[in-house]
Amino acid sequence: MPTERSAPTPAPGALLLCRAEPEAVAPVAQLLREHMLLTRAGRDWSVLVPEGKPWQDGAEPVDRVLTGWAGALAVGAPWPVLALWWDADRGGYTLASGFRRPVGYVWLANGTPAGEDEAMRTFAARLGLDPVLDVQSLDQLTKPDSAADARARLTGLLAVLTRAGLTLPTGLAPGEPADRLRETARVQPDARPLEWEGRRETVRGELEAVAGHRLAPWLPWSGDPRARALALAQVAAGLPLTALGLRRRSGGWVTAGALLLAHGALGLAYDLSHPRD
To answer: If I label 199, which of 31, 139, 183, 221 is the partner at 20 to 30 A Cα–Cα?
Structure first.
């Protein structure tokens, strides 16, 4: 007697979208100390595809890992970071920008909305989307739709962002397993692997090249009072964030807090060791 076969369980996957050119994203993303592939994703957009899958060990779900990564990237850069994630039960996004509280939305696997409508409006405002046309399209993603599962909802979200210049390479799509995403990213003409180099001077040089005149006063070695203020703010924000991550046993938040503390401590140490005239 034939037995009925159940559908395969969707594998978790994730993408990190940065609203910046790859040249600006690369030095900041290296500070995550995670193996990733970086490639262009349209006008003024880049996409990071994780090569590792730390959520597979069961210690932390994919949404928490990606939220931590997005937060850690955003606090060290002047551009927003959008994390897309999905697993067998849910799919959703987290938008991180600077020191502001991340905003996100979740859909169940069958597409049932499980978030707050206000999150969509905040999402649109932080990305500078059209307050009428784009917000209307985003609102539709928060309404019941029996024909749209979580993958379709995320695809709809990306469709809205195409009007803001986002164009993901073919094959980099929500719902695809992490291995397939990695292979697709690897064959892109401008793809580059990112990994921690461990050389502070190399990272410093890349940051200086990317930052230019606009961000130079905020860098630790600039000698500007704003650099000291930023370092103090990073330490002040990193301490409670690290404590929150430890309390919740969230590696992502611990990473974000530790990164803030490291940046702030480096800035303060440089300021103390190089007194101003």
So the answer is: 183
Report pLDDT digits (tens) over 244-270: 777 777 666 777 777 777 766 666 555
Domain boundaries along the sequence of the chain = 13-193, 214-272
**Residue partners of 168: CB distance under 8 A and separation at least 6:** 15, 41, 42, 47, 158
Burial of 47 (0-12, 13-18, 19+ CB in 10 A): buried
